[in-house]
Design brief:
This protein has a seven-stranded parallel beta sheet, with helices on both faces. The protein is 37% helix and 16% strand. It has helices at residues 13-22, 31-38, 56-61, 80-85, 98-113, 116-124, 151-162, 184-190, 210-215, 233-241, 263-266, 281-299, 312-318, and strands at residues 3-7, 23-27, 45-48, 67-70, 89-91, 143-147, 166-170, 180-181, 193-196, 220-224, 245-250, 270-272. α1 links the parallel β1 and β2 (23-27). The longest helix has 19 residues, at 281-299. With 320 residues, the protein is of the alpha/beta class. It starts with a strand and ends with a helix. The chain folds into two domains: 3-96 and 282-318, 3-Layer(aba) Sandwich (Rossmann fold); 98-272, Rossmann fold.
Length: 320
């Protein structure tokens, strides 16, 4: 007999078709439909993307849940500890967006270093002669410092080296990589471009603050395609205003969507994209399909991809 799965957000069509073939699918894309679902059906699995919150209150409303999942990598909107305490598997899609976010990271570097956004805008305004005052720089020969060497960070190493960059990195342990492992202080002091690729944890929250920004080379560039809370944005704005940094480019913000007068978005030295780094058609479909396949496997008593079970070790401890 098919089990019941609740979707808090839309997912890729191919993933929805697969899920519908193997489970009874219910949707709760707004508060009203969520309230209706709470009183009408026994839910065994819950799937979200980036906005729908899987928290304590939701899990209390659906006591039969066996698995919760996010079609993506980060789990900021999933209460992992609460799920683990209830012996619920937490599923994500590690590695599924590595290439596309790495490419987005390099795109932001190029846009910032070559001043592409301003160049394109000036041409659209009919100002071809802006080229006479254009100034830009190249990636080749620059030192790229990568903080965090998961799937995305390791992919950025390869892309950076393909552009002729000298790549150094910091992670808790040395990796099998062509980059050079250094301390975080050495990385900040030596890098022309610093790129963040860490998950958000209590240890990484506000990792880049005033002290770290002061260590960076004058005129260096900071890139963040990971999590906004890795950076103290008040300290960041001061570093930009004081010309400590030449620029900041990011795909994430503390508040999304940002308020109308968000100072980071409005700053002349920033390039901000709308958290779209992983939203290529291929990656979106891959993340969603991988996620629903693992959810279906769990609900049917089969073995999912072990790498997709985020809280696997903690669940094993709970049951030992």
């Amino acid at each position: 007999m098919k089990k019941n799965v609740l979707l808090l957000e839309t997912i890729a069509e191919a993933a929805l078709e697969y899920l519908s073939d193997h489970a009874n699918v219910y949707t709760a894309y707004d508060e009203a439909s969520l309230i209706e679902a709470k009183g009408s059906v026994e839910i065994h699995g819950i799937i979200t993307r980036g906005k729908g919150q899987i928290n304590k209150a939701l899990l209390e409303s659906f006591p039969s849940v066996e698995v919760v999942a996010r079609c993506g990598v980060g789990l900021d909107n999933v209460s992992v500890d609460e799920a683990t305490a209830r012996n619920i598997m937490v599923i994500n899609a590690p590695g599924s967006n590595a290439s596309t976010i790495a490419e987005h990271t390099l795109s932001l570097m190029l846009m910032a270093m070559r001043n592409m956004y301003e160049s394109a805008w000036q041409v659209k305004q009919g100002n071809w002669n802006w080229r006479n005052q254009y100034s830009g720089d190249e990636l080749s020969g620059k030192t790229l410092g990568i903080i965090g060497m998961g799937n995305i960070g390791q992919r950025v190493v390869k892309l950076g080296q393909a552009f002729g960059m000298n790549v150094i990195y910091w992670s808790r342990s040395a990796k099998d990589s062509d980059g050079v492992h250094v301390t975080i202080e050495e990385l900040l002091q030596q890098s022309d471009i610093v790129s963040l690729h860490l998950p958000l944890t209590p240890e990484t929250d506000q990792l880049i603050g005033a002290e770290q920004l002061n260590l960076m080379k004058p005129g260096s560039l900071l890139i963040n395609t990971a999590r906004a809370a890795l950076i103290d944005h008040h300290a960041l704005l001061k570093a930009l205003d004081d010309n400590k940094l030449s620029g900041f480019a990011a795909d994430v913000l503390p508040e999304e969507p940002p308020i109308a007068d968000d100072p980071v978005v409005a700053h002349a030295k920033t390039i901000i994209t709308p958290h779209s780094g992983s939203l290529t058609a291929a990656t979106y479909q891959r993340m969603c399909l991988l996620t629903v396949q693992n959810v279906v496997a769990i609900l049917n008593g089969a073995e999912p991809d072990p790498k997709s079970i985020f809280n696997r070790e903690d669940l094993q401890k709970n049951n030992s």
